[in-house]
Structures are given as structure tokens and as C-alpha cells.
Amino acid sequence: MIDQEELRDCYTSTPSKIVLLVVDGLGGLAHPDTRLSELETAHIPNLDAMAQESACGLTTPVLPGVAPGSGPGHLALFGYDPLKHMIGRGALEALGIDVALQPGDIAARGNFCLVDGDGLLVDRRAGRIPTQLSAPLCERLDKIEIDGVQLDVFPVQDYRFVLRLRGEGLSEFISETDPQVTAAAPLTVKPLAPGATRTAALVNEFVAQAGKLLAEEERANMVLLRGFARLPDLPPMGEVYRLNTAGIAAYPMYRGLAEVAGMKVIPTGHTFGDEVETLRQNFNNHDFFFIHYKPADAAGEDGDFDAKVKCLEDLDPFIPQIRELEPDVFLVAGDHSTPAIMAAHSWHPVPFMLHSKLTRGEGVPGFNERTCAQGSVGSILATQVMLLAMSHAGKLNKYGP
Amino acid sequence: MIDQEELRDCYTSTPSKIVLLVVDGLGGLAHPDTRLSELETAHIPNLDAMAQESACGLTTPVLPGVAPGSGPGHLALFGYDPLKHMIGRGALEALGIDVALQPGDIAARGNFCLVDGDGLLVDRRAGRIPTQLSAPLCERLDKIEIDGVQLDVFPVQDYRFVLRLRGEGLSEFISETDPQVTAAAPLTVKPLAPGATRTAALVNEFVAQAGKLLAEEERANMVLLRGFARLPDLPPMGEVYRLNTAGIAAYPMYRGLAEVAGMKVIPTGHTFGDEVETLRQNFNNHDFFFIHYKPADAAGEDGDFDAKVKCLEDLDPFIPQIRELEPDVFLVAGDHSTPAIMAAHSWHPVPFMLHSKLTRGEGVPGFNERTCAQGSVGSILATQVMLLAMSHAGKLNKYGP
């Protein structure tokens, strides 16, 4: 939507305020015993009461049937077509640990791995060595120096790290080293586009030096690199929608996604309570706020139905705190569904509600997959959520005479 | 939809008849006291009974969140993508007062305005002078003659008029003269595309002469021009859908929109009763009828909830009169919502029902925003309404073997 040239002149700046609460992994599926979803099971009186007064619907993050990663799930809610704009794995991984990427920087997702005497892969994840073992190895790799490029290695968690390449004329269009199977040797990096030859050679040199530095290690004596990527160059959503945007997130990846969308990222603490307090303190300074709630997704990914229910219940008391700020438009949405019974992101349409003075107010009895399917918004693409936010805030003028 | 090349061969001509009743500004929002919308408040037994036997749904005129003008709202129902086809302000204004536009003609929306001794704007609308004052001024401007172009000035209402330029090689790609603020001088018209230089010069000359002719006027001594436009060159909907189309509308703008869509406009009277009588008399001569009901929108735009309720109640007795004609497909739709509490066009999805022998028949208790949100048609784009009309009329063959 953000590129919808025809609507560009319809966006208008006003003092009204929009709060977009993204509940990560919000949607779910029924528990086989109770036939109730996580939202239907949870005791969430404040979300339920808000749904009654809101316009409800379901959002499809990418396309029906397509489960998105965190990148596409959030970009869509911010108004960017996730099929046109992709944040590569390496760049997303960097965002996830607060590693700054400048224009031109290339980031890769790295794994420590184990190879045998012939250089063939024995374990692609080095037995999932814990961070306290991998972090010192990262420090060692970080010292590698190669002419013409600045190389930095950052530990992520367990066997994972980020490699950042900084310098002139680097290209992300190079092949990966992970053969995706064991008993094979790591692959040599090849250029995939004109102008990528030098970057491929630099990365091969890095891998060779890493192999030497790690040769004596028993559990992790080699590295695998994939997902070479730079940050996408997106038009700032604030510029397109004429908003003064702010992002508030306790987890670095979501701060990174806010930054990619051109938002001002406001420092906050480690809990959602901290985030709400940050929202309150900065409420006068912006007219659009993205605020992120992570725990529900994590519980869903763990396949822990009860834990996800609990996370939704933990969120509920914060709803009145946000409503007390009296935003003109308050949306509760999700970047994707994470049904506990799947223990993974899924493609199922995500419950969504928009509260403002200008909604029909469905009078539905609660906020969940079933009630939202009956809502007046119907089933929409997540990229259209910002249009609804803008119009309900009086920031989207009539199209055409 | 109308450009949907893939479906072109599926449309087939049959004797079956379609009536599309467009209730202008049909959708609404709840009254703050009763929590009931205009449709929910109105006593409309015939519409309610029809909904029970119909396929119901909600239409989105352009995109979720986007409030359309009358042009995009109608074009969408006729099957034209409103984001691809725009009727510019000047052309729509001309249609609204029955001013004929030929191919090549350019029309502009004109305002009388007031400037001070230095030529700076004091009032962009000349104190909204009444038509009886502006009409004689239009007659004066209409006498302006400039070589190489035929200029005509038509009064609209109050301070508004239409300027029509007719001649060879005119271009609508010229800038407007309205600076949109006071204490500034009207802008000089500039060409915005190659080949528009001469038109820009002609219009500047018109403005200069208008300024001289009006110089002694106390309330309206200058003009502002904007929205230079020609009629869009649309494929006639009758040709695409293989229909013999007719448009019946008491208000000129809607006759104009029917004409833009290539319909035969049948002369009618000033009331909806006249329109229904015209429909009856011509029912054997066409297989598609667009019939327009205006009052609900006007009441909504006035912000008069009770008046809009009354307008819907006034429409209701005509429903059986139309059904007595036994059209194979009878659709009741709206070009957009005009909630009285907003006193403006809005983006809210518009209730819609389609009656034919081939519908499921929802058995819903009434025709309104809430019941239609539960309907079997779901939430669709307004551009898809004609596809439903065609299929239910047996005029849309199976796609693909």
C-alpha cells in the first residue's frame, strides 16, 4: 500500500494520534480437547470489552496460506508489501542483536559447525554449543583482518553469530556456504551477480582463516555462512503517511524493524510494562506509535498452549493503561499467528481490532479468531491496516471528486 | 474488473435482466445514543424482507480505509477500477450541471473570489455569493473570446462555475491557479506536460480578461480555476459485459457518470418515483439498468441522522414496485457510506444485497451494516459487484475448461 501512488495526495497531517499494538504471534488454533483457541481460553476482559466497541476483522500477513517470518509480518502491518520488500536473513539477524547496519553493509547469519579430518560436515550446528562457549570463539574470529573490508563478528546465541562486512563496493549477491547436509564439505562462496566477485573472494578468505583459527577446537572447528543481505532501502513510512512515527520495543529485532520503516526508536526497558511507560512519557511527541508485545509468540513457538494463554492474560491489564492515554485510534493486531499446537508461525488470518470514535462497534462478545471473523472490517490484507488507521484518525482524505 | 482480459470471453448476452439500484451514501454509523445505524433505525420492511431472501455482503469502494468521491464510488460499482480510472474535478463538475463534454474538451472548476488592490486573495470563495449574483457574472465571462479556442462559462451554484475549453490540441495537464491560501496572488497556469504550453497560455489569457471584466465588482472581482480535466475514455461497460445498458437518474452528475460508462441515459423526472416509472416504461428495451437514489447521501452529508433515516424509509415502498417488474437480478448497493455522524463520505464498507433465484438467501432479519457483514457474499471490492450480477443473471460463463 505504501507505494500506492494514487493515494499519495490523500494523506494529511493532523494532531490525532494512532497507537498500533502488535501482539507477536497473536492468532492461534483450537486446543484439541477444548476446541477453544488460546485467545478463546484466556481470561482477557479488557481485550474482550474493547472488541465489543471496535471494528474487528482478520488480517492476512502476506497471502492466504503463507506463513510469514517476523520481517514480512511487521513490514506488512507498517504498510509495505512484503512480497516486494524483503529483509534478508543476515540483516534481520543483525537487527535482532542490535548490530547497526549502515547503507552498504552486508550481514550474514553464521553457524559454528564441526567438520571431520577430510573437512566434511559432521554437525552443522556444532552440537548447539552454548553461548558461553561460542562467544569467545566469536571474539577470536572478530580479530580476522582482510584488506579492503572491515569484518566484525557478533555472538547471537548458542552456535549462532552474525558476520558484518563493511567497506566500499560490497555485494550481497553471493552464494551461501551451508550445503544443508552433513558428510559434505562447506561450499565455496560464488558471485551471483556482476560486481560480486570481490565480495565472494573476501568471504572465502574469511572462512579459510576461520577454519585455521578454529582448527584445534573439538566441538566447533568451522563456520557456515548464509543469508548475505543488506538492509532494504524503504521509503520511511512517516514520510509517505505524513506521520511523526515512533517505535517502542523491548526486543532488539523489533526495534530494528521499526528503524527499517524509518521510525524513531525510543529507548525502553525489558518488559512490556516498561514499553507502556515509555509510550506514556512520549505520548505528546509523536502521532504514531508502534508498540510490540513479544511473549505470546515465544510461548506459541514453544508449543506451550497454557503458557501462551498466560501471556495473553498478562497483556490484558495493560490495555486500559493504553486506552487511558486516549489515542484517537488504537489498533491491536498481530504480525502472524503462532498456534501452540503447531509450535510455529502459521498462515492463519490474525485477529485484529481498531478502536476509534468512528467504528461501527460490532458488539461481539470477545476478541478472538471466531468473533473477528464476523467483524465489519472483514478479511483484509495486513498492508491495508495502515489505511484504516489513517482514515479513522482523519488523516486520509477522500479519494477523487 | 472491466479490464479483466481473462474473463472477456466468459460474458454472454442473454434476455435476462439486471437492475442495479445505487443508494447514494447508503452505509452509516451508529447513533451515539441508540447504538443503531441509520439503516438499523429506519422502518424499511421491504428492504428487510428482500435481504432475508438475498445474498448479502459488504462492498469496499476503493480500498479498506479509503473514502471515495462520487466518481470513484460509481465507477467501481460499474466495474471500473477506481484507482486506474479517475474523473477529474472539472469534468465531474461539468457532468453535475449537464454540460456536455466532447472528446478533447477540457473542463475546469471555477470559483469567484475577492482580491485586494495588490491582487492578493482576500476571500477564495467571494463570501459564497449566491447564484443570483454569480450567474450574471458567468454570463459576462462567457463573452470572453480568445483566438483558437471556444470558451464557455456555466454557473454551478453560489460562487462556483464551470469553464469549458473546446478546440484542437488542448491539454488538461496544466497547473491550477488556486494557491489554497489567502494573502497570496492567484497562481499563473503552467504547462505540466509537453504540448500543454498553448493551453496554459489560453487559460492565463482568460484569467487576465476575467480580472478586467470583474475589476469593479465589490464582492467577486477575480476567478480561481482548478481541476482541469477531460472525460476519461472508458471502454463502454455494455460492450465489455455484452449488455444493453441504461442509466436512470434524476440528478445530472449521475446521468453523466452513466454516460461516461457508455450507458444510454433515459430522460426522467425529478423524483425517484419518476425514475421507477421510467424504469417500468423502458423495462423491455434493455437488459441492464442503473437507477440512482440520491436523498440518503444528501441527508448524511448534512449530518442529519433523522433525515437520512427518513430518506431510507421513503425509498422502501419503491422496492416492491421494482420487484414487481421481476428482474432476474436485483441489486441494492451503495457507492460509499455517508454516516450522518460524520457528515461526510466515509470508507466504511457498504451494505449490499443481490436478489435472484440463484442466491443462498441468508435468512437475516434485516438489511443493514451488521446483517450484511454476516452475509454469504462476505466483504468484496465494489468492482466485483458486476461479476456477481452477471453470473446470477446467467450472463457469465464458466471460466476455463
Q: How are the elements arranged and paired?
A:
Two copies of one chain form a homodimer.
Chain A lengths: L17 E6 L14 H4 L3 H9 L1 E6 L9 H8 L11 H8 L9 E10 L5 E3 L7 H12 L7 E8 L2 E7 L30 H18 L7 E8 L7 H5 L3 E4 L3 H9 L3 E2 L6 H10 L6 E6 L1 H7 L3 H11 L2 H7 L4 E5 L16 E6 L13 H5 L4 E4 L3 H8 L9
Parallel strand pairs in A: 1-10, 1-11, 2-13, 8-9, 8-10
Antiparallel strand pairs in A: 2-12, 3-4, 3-6, 3-7, 5-6, 11-12
Helix pairs in contact in A: 4-8, 10-11
In short:
Chain A is an alpha/beta fold and 401 residues long. In chain A, 30% of the residues lie in helices and 19% in strands. Chains A and B meet through strand 13 and helix 14 of A and helix 3, helix 4 and helix 13 of B.
List keywords for this structure.
homodimer; about 400 residues; alpha/beta; five-stranded antiparallel beta sheet; about 30% helix
Biggest chain pair contact, residues each? A-B, 32 and 40 residues
Mass-distribution shape of chain A? globular
Question: Could you tell me how far the N terminus lies from the C terminus of chain A, measured between alpha carbons in angstroms?
Answer: 21 Å
Number of helices of chain A: 14
Q: Note the beta-strand portion of chain A.
A: 15-25%
What's the overall average pLDDT of chain A, rounded?
A: 96
Oligomer class: homodimer
Q: What is the succession of H and E elements of chain A?
A: EHHEHHEEHEEHEHEHEHEHHHEEHEH
Secondary-structure content class of chain A: alpha/beta
Number of strands of chain A: 13
